[in-house]
User: Fold this.
Amino acid sequence: MSDFPPSMRHVLLSDPHQVLLDDSLLARQSGLIRRLGKIEIYSGNPVLVATEPHEQMGVLMFGTLVFDEGRYRCWYMTHGRGDHFCYAESDDGAVWRKPSLGLVEWGGSRNNNILFSACEGWSLANLSVAKSVKEENSDRRYRAVLFMYKKTNHRGPERGHYIVYSPDGIHWTPPEAAPNVNCNECGGLLWDETRTDFVDLNKTGHAVEMFNREDMRVGHARCTAVATSDDGHIWSPYRVVLMPNLFFDEPFDEFYHLHGFRWGGSYIGYLRIYHNTPDCGNAPRQRIDIQLATSRDGETWQRVCPGENFIQSAEPRQWDFGRIAIGNGPPAVLGDTMRIYYCGQPTDHRGGDGLGGQGEMGLRKGYTAKVGFAVLRKDGFVSLDADGDGYLLTHPLRTGEKLHLNVDATRGICRVELQYPDGRAIPGYSLDECTPLLTNQVDAEVTWKNGRDMPFKITSAVRLKIVLDKAKLYAFQWMHTR
Assistant:
């Protein structure tokens, strides 16, 4: 059993909190199936809707919604006699306010929540916000990318991401005269408060030829690419990291946004799947759903349960029919659950309402973008399930004083063994000496009959062998009490 590759050790071993979206931590497993977590849509949706005269297209969360600085904060885009970068906040995440900021004059008044408006003759087509607590310049603690272009030449040299900065998320520097990076509109910054560099996840400007299962050409497909920068000015070339795969995807499926964030020792991405399917059969047509992707460094990505929707667009006449989007911020944790906020529009990608009408042309009917949320078990993006007997064995990991599991063993049992790096059970920490877990908890402490803390004096790193019988494992975390 080999250790991690040396180039990966700092990525995989640095965080005591680990979800199980990929197999990077695992040296061996048997009898386990990775399944998506169960989403519950909040019955009171939508919670954030158009209320202002400049929000004619609604609240478009090609933006960011996070719990930050003790409150829920949403940076979003809207259109209405101009394109606007706006702000809303909430104490509970359900009742929202749009503060009068006094920053931008619109309609003869500064009594609005607009942070920035595109200049006359310009379009603002996308935005996202990120935060870095490691940034030495406090005036640049928050950064945002605004995708803008001139309406008279939408593919001209002015097209691209303009990066702006803020000390508080409210007062932003004006965009520079030229874009910081020429790119496509469907992009966004990676949210990781521990990083000072920039990672842009963007829809490719070029297309990849696609073939169906009979090897017949079916056209091209938009893909996901990544570019990085140390300073926000000099960028690497974009590199394709995700593309549709006809083993999992329908012909004509394409990738739009990938919005990502740091979560423990992983990055998690919400991948927008555009079903660009012609009218044929019962396949989804011109709708956008959300699937999951993951990364260990923010730059190399893989899909999670490919082809399976994490959040799916609703049926016609619903506020979230047709087009789903999620910003780049991490979920808000409330006790044993998480809230994932998403934007919905009641039209498909081409403006249809799913019933033969042109929904996007009927704004007076309420066909505007709105924001709601879904509830998920804490760390419950995926689980490793044992329908019968199963186990996993990790590579050697640094430990803490206590080990906690996010596990559901109400129908079965879960036990843990600590092993030396060579695979021998550490005396006192074998499977037989483990107190069985028979519960459903997001934070269940693992104990052994000897009652001692983790064996630091025995080894600096241990392997975990977690045995499951009719049980689900979502995550584990090493706790430090000293």
About this structure: The mean pLDDT is 88. The radius of gyration is 24 Å. The chain has two domains: 6-35+383-479, 40-378.
